[in-house]
């Protein structure tokens, strides 16, 4: 399946994007272009479900929030992303609005799919780090690993890569701890 790109000669603004009808179809604004993706695979949703349970329970213990896609993250006037999962600490609860998150979450997570791999690794990584997301997690199902980037580590050098029996930890979400291989289907 392929991701649908709108007419690249028509650049949408944030205001135009927000006037679109509500939908459960993954729909993002990336560099002013409307991007629609097919529904995720079973493997993608299994990984997302497992991560959400871990994030949800750890967030409850801190008073923070774990937000599951589809829910918008406003990057700027030409970019509105829908990370698969976000964590917001209690200090960032004010960023949550009825129409999305307006401010950098502590963690944004993207699970790679063949149709979005390039976008998640390039355009979206740059956007998340520019916004000031404390940690950007890229979950790679074929490689069965989790790569974490931070504004300090930059776009090219990950802060850390977790795989197999490694215990996944976060510098901004210390109550979240799990073995990397527990989120991937056998």
TrEMBL record:
Classification via InterPro entries: Nuclease_put_TT1808, Restrct_endonuc-II-like, Uma2
Keyword Hydrolase: yes
Keywords: Endonuclease, Hydrolase, Nuclease
UniProt superkingdom: Bacteria
Classification via Pfam families: Uma2 (PF05685)
SUPFAM superfamilies in the record: Restriction endonuclease-like
Protein's name in the database: Uma2 family endonuclease
Species for this entry: Chryseolinea soli
């Amino acid at each position: 399946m392929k991701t649908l790109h709108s007419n690249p000669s028509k650049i949408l603004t944030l205001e135009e994007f927000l006037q679109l009808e509500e939908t459960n179809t993954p729909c993002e604004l990336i560099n002013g272009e409307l991007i629609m993706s097919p529904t995720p695979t079973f493997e993608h949703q299994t990984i997302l479900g497992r991560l959400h349970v871990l994030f949800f329970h750890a967030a409850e213990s801190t008073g923070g929030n774990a937000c599951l896609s589809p829910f918008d993250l406003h990057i700027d006037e030409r970019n509105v992303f829908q990370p698969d999962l976000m964590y917001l600490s209690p200090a960032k609860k004010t960023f949550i609005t009825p129409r999305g998150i307006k401010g950098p979450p502590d963690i944004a997570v993207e699970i790679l799919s063949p149709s979005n791999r390039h976008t998640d690794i390039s355009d979206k990584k740059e956007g998340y780090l520019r916004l000031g997301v404390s940690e950007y997690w890229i979950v790679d199902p074929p490689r069965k690993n989790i790569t974490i980037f931070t504004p300090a580590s930059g776009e090219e050098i990950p802060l850390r890569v977790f795989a197999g029996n490694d215990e996944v930890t976060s510098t901004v979400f210390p109550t979240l701890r799990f073995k990397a291989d527990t989120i991937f289907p056998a």
